[in-house]
Amino acid sequence: MAKNVLITGGTGFVGKHLTDTLIDNGFTVSILSRSARENTSLITYYKWNLMSNYINEDAILQADYIIHLAGEGVVEKKWTKRRKKLILESRLKPIDLIFSILKKNNKILDGFISASGIGIYGAITSPEICTEMTAPANDFLGTTCQEWEQTVDKIGSLGIRTVKIRTAIVLGRNEGFLKKMSPNFKAGFGMILGTGKQYLPWIHIQDLCQIYLKAITDPEMQGAYNACVTDNTTNQTFSKILANLYGYKIWFPKIPSFVLKVVLGEMSEAVLKGQRASSEKIQKTGFQFQFTDLEEALVSCLF
């Protein structure tokens, strides 16, 4: 019988691609949804409502693996006090609910794999290439990711293998980061943000899905793994390549940092600073990236 993978956040950008990858590799998929959806032969939808602390327990009890992707977008809106609380709780609350159901029913999964973020290393720019052993930063992104991962450890305390995928910017066709960036660049209005020297770790959606598949199928994988290409891509590099693919050179001046700070507030740190991260640990598992060249990755997403 095919193994079942339950996904939180399964209807989002990464979730949709991951669902296809899992089905292509012989798994059945269950998805937690806030609205009623029609089941298919390979996908079963279960109701959940975080506001009322409700998850259909059958979704948990019938799962062999759980992948936790759910969470409010980090750069969707300004970081007000209320927004920051929502960003954190939307990541932690599902884990707490799942933990309580697993513990109550003495359910042992084959694995619990959770998203996390490269942001755990903080909104800083330095020559350091961060590894999974690098200490978390004390800023909002760093503490959010740290609490996220610590909550995942509760699942591990039940004797369940846990994996945390620290994800960089994900590149996909008309989705995610490129959905926000490409319209302006395509129209000829591409610009460099701040100094442009901030690093911009990235990963192609196909590689990210394969990392999640690896985390399921490789019982030796446990703990945190950086999901990113280790290169020297900066905001300036990324912007110039993207503009070049659309057939022009950037002619607008750089957007000054102080302007972005006024417009975005504290959230400007997420776009004005960026840190490199090492992919050595995931590669040591035998994983091989399909996309390591930024231009090639962008072409696959845009054309």
What is the straight-line distance between the termini?
Answer: 39 Å
In total, how many beta strands?
12
CATH homologous superfamily identity: NAD(P)-binding Rossmann-like Domain
Mean pLDDT: 94
Most strands sheet: 8 strands, mixed
Strand percentage:
15-25%
CATH topology assignment: Rossmann fold
Provide the low-confidence segments as ranges: none
Q: Which bin fits the share of residues in helices?
A: 25-40%
CATH architecture: 3-Layer(aba) Sandwich
Strand order of the largest sheet: 4-3-2-1-5-6-8-11
Outline of the structure:
This protein is α/β, with parallel strands linked by helices. It is built from 11 helices and 12 strands. Helix content is 39%, strand content 17%.
Describe this structure in words.
- The protein is of the alpha/beta class.
- It has one domain (4-234, 266-302): Rossmann fold.
- 39% of the residues lie in helices and 17% in strands.
- It contains 11 helices and 12 strands.
- The strands form 3 sheets. Strands 4-3-2-1-5-6-8-11 form an 8-stranded mixed β-sheet, with helices on both faces. A two-stranded parallel sheet has the order 7-12. A two-stranded parallel sheet has the order 9-10.
- The protein starts with a strand and ends with a helix.
- The mean pLDDT is 94.
